[in-house]
Amino acid sequence: MDVVEDIADDFENYEDDTHLGYTAEVFDELVTKEEEPTRFQRANPFNKLLPYSDVLEVEADAMLADIKANLGRCVMQRDIKIGAVAWTKMLHKYIILYDLRFTKEDHIALIKLLYELMTIPNLETGLIVSFAYRLFLLLRERYQQGNKTWKPRIPDSHKLRDVDIDAFVNSLMPIVLQCIFHINRPESFGNAVQNLANLRPNVVIPRILEKIYPSIGVDIEPHKFQHAMANLMDVARPMILGSRVVNPEYAYVEGPQQVLPILFSTLSGIDLNDFIKYMYAFACLGLYATMIPIVDCSGCTAPDLTEDERLVCEQTSKFEDFVLQFMDKNICRSGSIRDRFLLIEML
Fold it and tell me: Residue 35 domain-assigned?
């Protein structure tokens, strides 16, 4: 028995054999209709900038014709599980490549088709989800086409005030501080810390550091060191920006002055005998190293430096000491010549 007969057997228990009749009629009209390129709703404008844009037009026409013809054929032959799923995925790919490069009539017909497919009686859940997702994409694009200003205007009386954000952040901080070193904390905890630190750096970051600093550099449980490094990475951006954050009135101004102490504290995690701890330390070091220039600026005499900037410049004189300690831990103490060369390549 071929694939079409298998699919037909799977769907022979449908109570309404005419359920797909309307869909077939829609696609008979859709497939036989001649299209004018000027009638397309919206084409991908970037495709025109490609050197082979003329070829893309031909390929897009052929791809759309194949999608319409094969979707219609799958519906007529009741090839739902395999054929219809495959060609609706191809429709999704077409939209990604060419945007809404089909007519308004095609758009409406495709929406009707996917709705008919999604509402087939006794359809498997996986197929419903697949068709529903493609239907959502088409409906979303259709809605956005007709409603350029679909977002409702928020009344001033309903907007969040600074005092509301302060209250929100402060209400969550006790929970955050309690969960910092919890061995079973959820994976989303880091995202929560990051978002809170972006909202109110001056409230979140100093309290995080106050909790973390005493536990770094001493012989603690490995999971505590890992969580400490993870939290330092979560607050890295607003801390390094200091007063340059979007809302300077809520900035953690002393943040840039904490960078070097953090870099030195991560050195305690560089232990070749504890790979997980080693990788967390390297991840934290790598993140901070990509966000700051490791340059000695202690000799800077620019007249427009603020007091905080001057202190940060003075601190950079310790970069050389940090690099020497880093090299000592990673190269001089590695077990073999081969390990040393591997570490040098990593650096």
Answer: no
Based on C-alpha coordinates, what's the Rg of the chain? 30
Identity at 332, one-letter amino acid code? C
Half-sphere exposure of 37 (CA within 13 A, CB side): 8
- For the stretch 294-308, pLDDT in tens is 888 888 888 888 888
Beta strands in the chain (DSSP E): none
Same domain, 133 and 166: no
* More confident position, 183 or 94: 94
Does the pTM exceed 0.70?
no
CA 27 centroid distance within chain: 37
Q: Which letter, b or e, does each residue of 267-288 get, where b requires 16 or more Cβ atoms within 10 Å of its Cβ?
A: bbbbbeeeeebbebbbbbbebb
**Cα angle: 122, vertex 125, 126; to 5 degrees:** 130
The per-residue pLDDT for range 4-13, each reduced to its tens digit, is 344 344 334 4
